[in-house]
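User: Sorry, what's this?
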Amino acid sequence: MVSSSNQSNHSRANSASAAVTPNPPDQRMRSRILSAAGSLWGQIEASMSGLLFGGAILLVTYTVLVRYLSPGNAPLYTDEITVYMVMWAVLSGCAGVTRNRQHVRTDLLLHIIPSSLQFYCELAANLAGTGFALFLAWYGGLVAYEAWDFGDVSPTNLRFPLWIYYSALPVAAALMAVGHLQVAITLWRTRPKADRSEGRARGSEA
């Protein structure tokens, strides 16, 4: 009688754990979808940055040739447009560099501290980067909004709206914040096994 009740309780526990635990094929499908979406977004960022850089190079080449062959017909606005294009190209590529962990960073401390602390330093650095990027996005958004609200334009004959130029910072900062957050989540999911087992032991004790 006791054994049958134990078996029934055990079967209930197994059914409850099966209901809570996600299906592995669903997890694999979800990870594939997220990976494909991230790869597509990275290609979009790289393509936009490459097109802007390529357009700036072509514009500079055209300006140099015209000034050399016919100085009187040299355009006056190409230098200004080149600055805008290069700025957007550089900042639009920052998110992908952050997400792929290819940015310049001082990792001397990571080689000095014990390996057990490297994970926490990496996690803290990415969380701090997320906060700083969000601050840049907020402050840069205020600057771009003020330029749009006051109708600020460039002092040249082009009269280019400056809010478009200023918007490069908040857009890039927001994407960098997402990149730092993605790296932090990946680090947490792939944290050392010792930390995982310790967390599970604490949960079982509670």
User: Anything to note?
Assistant: Confidence is low (pLDDT under 50) at residues 1-9, 15-22. The CA atoms of residues 123 and 186 lie 10 Å apart. The first helix runs from residue 2 to 20. The chain has nine helices and no strands.
